[in-house]
Design a protein that fits this description.
- About 45% of the residues lie in helices and about 20% in strands.
- By secondary structure, it is an alpha+beta fold.
- The strands form 2 sheets. The protein has a 3-stranded antiparallel beta sheet with strand order 1-2-3, with no helix packed on it. The protein has a 3-stranded antiparallel beta sheet with strand order 4-5-6, with no helix packed on it.
- A hairpin with a 5-residue loop joins strand 2 and strand 3.
- The radius of gyration is 23 Å and the shape is elongated.
- The termini are far apart.
């Protein structure tokens, strides 16, 4: 068929493209549990193109009960690779004060966006955003750490 023709011609890029189309077409017709099993098997066999395509399809359409049965390694990779991440807060800057306040600034304009009473009058020693910018962690002199949802503070 088309794949054999591409292989015969030695067109490696064309062959990979056709393989990808065939894989995606096959995967799109699988039931959710079959797709989950295929994803786990492809990972175990190091079948990277198949694993990548199956993981992407699984992340797009699998219901929670199917994902719940996936192995934790596969689930973590699916979430990391395929689940769309929140828009990053590129322009937000988190600053902490010696009196326990968490200040959020717009780094492009310098304007203050929020002031949060994070650790009532205690020196905050550390502040960090989570990898997807959905949370901010603060740690203070009294050895407490707090997590803040960046949507609600």
């Amino acid at each position: 068929s088309t794949l054999h023709a591409a292989d015969y011609c030695g067109a490696q890029a064309c062959k990979l493209w056709v393989e990808n189309i065939i894989i995606k077409d096959h995967i799109s017709n699988l039931e959710p549990n079959e797709l989950r099993r295929l994803t786990e098997n492809a990972r175990a066999c190091h079948a990277d193109p198949l694993y990548e395509a199956a993981g992407e399809e699984l992340a797009k359409r699998a219901p929670v009960d199917v994902l719940r049965n996936a192995s934790s390694d596969v689930l973590a990779e699916i979430v990391d690779r395929h689940v769309e991440k929140r828009q990053r807060r590129i322009q937000e800057l988190a600053v902490v004060t010696s009196n326990g306040k968490l200040l959020i600034y717009d780094s492009a304009t310098g304007s203050s966006l929020r002031i949060v009473d994070a650790h009532s009058d205690i020196l905050i020693r550390c502040v960090a955003y989570s990898f997807d910018s959905s949370m901010i962690a603060t740690a203070s002199r009294d050895h407490t750490a707090r997590l803040w949802n960046t949507d609600t503070y």
